[in-house]
Amino acid sequence: MSTSTVRRAGPREWGGLAVLSLPTILLGLDVTVLYVALPSLAEDLRPSSTEALWIMDAYGFLIAGFLITMGTLGDRIGRRKLLMIGAAAFGAVSVVAAYSDSTELLIAARAALGIAGATLMPSTLALISNMFADQRQRSLAIGVWATSFALGMALGPVVGGAMLDRFWWGSAFLLAVPVAIVLLVAAPVMIPEYRAPRNGRFDLLSVALSLIAILPVVYAVKRFAKDGLDAPTIVAAVIGVVFTVLFVRRQGDLASPLLDVRLFTDRTFSAALSVLLIGLVGVGGSMLLITQQLQLVEDLSPVEAGLWMGPPALMMFVAAIGAPLVARRVPPGIVVAVTLALSTLGYVLLTQVSATGGIPLIVIGFGLVYLGLGAIAALGTDLVVGAAPPEKAGSASAMSETVQELGLALGVAILGSLATAVYRGRIGDEIPADTATGAAAAVGDSLADASSLGHRLPDGLLDQAKEAATSGLNVAMLVAAVGTLVLSVLSAVALRHIGTLGAEPEADEAVPGGAVPGGAVRSER
Length: 525
Fold this sequence. Notes:
Blueprint (H helix, E strand, L loop, with lengths): L10 H35 L3 H29 L1 H20 L4 H29 L3 H32 L9 H15 L2 E2 L9 H24 L3 H23 L13 H31 L4 H7 L1 H17 L5 H19 L8 H29 L5 H35 L9 H9 L1 H7 L7 H34 L28 E2 L1
Antiparallel strand pairs: 1-2
């Protein structure tokens, strides 16, 4: 058996990482910047409530639906090539979105941005796995990559607010254009190309099955968060499950599948995906509820709320960079378990937030939550990508991104619905009998609707609504604390077989397909 020396990354690779961080920051920013732009956008285009939801959701739907397809497509045609195509498309469609003069055009542009965005995430992550063959360097690079996305999300409200103070709502979309230009210029110089050495037929039926499997599930989760368990939610979920089974069966029959289901037989791959999925549930729900708490209960502007989210983002940065360094001496399972235990403490602190003066506790508690997020995002993603052979890195990266998208959506659905149920239960008995029917219905539905009525509500009712919403936050965070504590214990058990980063893998930890972790990859300079 021949062995090869693993080449360590040099200045060019680290410079390439900086280039790859740009689209990652952009995608994170695009998630949150629209929340700031939506009010002025709605005033200009006058979308209906349904159209406004599609403006927000079309992007996420299409990203989730096309991640697996784009990850495998990058393996086939070249990851750098797909990255550059996606960046060019993202920049061009952003211009269309910025100058949209109708709701329909903006929804179509947001959907196209989702498809373009689906090319960027798995491509950047897979290219990092190629550029950083040394496991310790790769873990650190993935930590930087994970932090870039969180940085973009934190910057969204701040940058978007600054743009809207000076320009029209479409300017928020134009932020993508200079990023796309820099990437298109720098990528051929700083980033090596990679294509899988064995290209089979690209199965279009598998693409269709994957879309019909993923999109109904995502739709069902999002609808459940808004409308509860109704008939359309159940039908969409059933369709998604049925086509997931059909998709998996077809992949097992193909010589060159869209997704190699044999990857799931690797216990590191499966365990790390599970940790990412479950861990992101708590983060997704808490992110939604904390944002609402800052803006609707504490009465902060989106820009002010974004600034208060800066310290938690810094905590994620510390964890995402620090966890891979600690994991060189301490097994990753222990690192993940300990940081998740600290996240549990953060959720417990959030159960004590009150409706007045709760900002310091929110910042500290959510900072601890983000500490765990940084660790699982860096180490979990690295374990998923590292468990796959080099020619499947794009597919593995896409799976990592897909489960994280699903985890965030589930968190919003589960914890958001729980918080809403608590709110409605608390506020129902507080609404005076002589309150106008429309106002009573608005207050009984959500704090957002109650806040929109403002001074038209009876004295003290808005404060009571804020108290009820805070109670919903407290209960949801208690559930998240219990779930995260259980996940902490399970992580220590499920990942116990993994040694410190850079250590020799156990004999039974061979990568599916016969690849050796950290082995050579086929690249073109």
